[in-house]
Amino acid sequence: xxxxxxxxxxxxxxxxxxxxxxxxxxxxxxxxxxxxxxxxxxxxxxxxxxxxxxxxxxxxxxxxxxxxxxxxxxxxxxxxxxxxxxxxxxxxxxxxxxxxxxxxxxxxxxxxxxxxxxxxxxxxxxxxxxxxxxxxxxxxxxxxxxxxxxxxxxxxxxxxxxxxxxxxxxxxxxxxxxxxxxxxxxxxxxxxx
Length: 193
Description:
Blueprint: H1 3-24, E1 26-31, E2 33-37, E3 47-54, E4 57-64, E5 73-79, E6 87-89, E7 96-106, E8 109-117, E9 131-137, E10 151-158, E11 163-168, H2 173-192
Helix pairs in contact: 1-2
């Protein structure tokens, strides 16, 4: 193997290791698959969740995509962790109404964290372009189940008739990127043989 190829492989491995370290502390979840109900207006993803490790827990940011039609809002976020969070905080968030911890089922899927957002008055809703941020204690991103059914948002007031939808994400974006990097490295190794 030539020096150029060795350097490329070394840089790829180092980049993948750095990315894997970063993704171990942060998960990006694009909500782009309708589980039940109407298809939300605008292009997918209709919402994006970013979960980041912080001291004693995780910080969760939920973004209602700015390309969604006016009036379409998120009323609920459901999450599944492998362990139950021990607490939560949303005091500085203008959109969260309540967070409930405990096992429950919604649309045939199991969850243990329910985040309810304000629905009235309309000016308090998590509308397109809005970002809600809160923390969950006693868990880390590695405790998040991370499956395609481990996070779901409830989107309401979908045009034209004001329908609702429950949307899931097929897989966290960070896992897709790691998988792509590993497949590339395996392909390089196979080609070398």
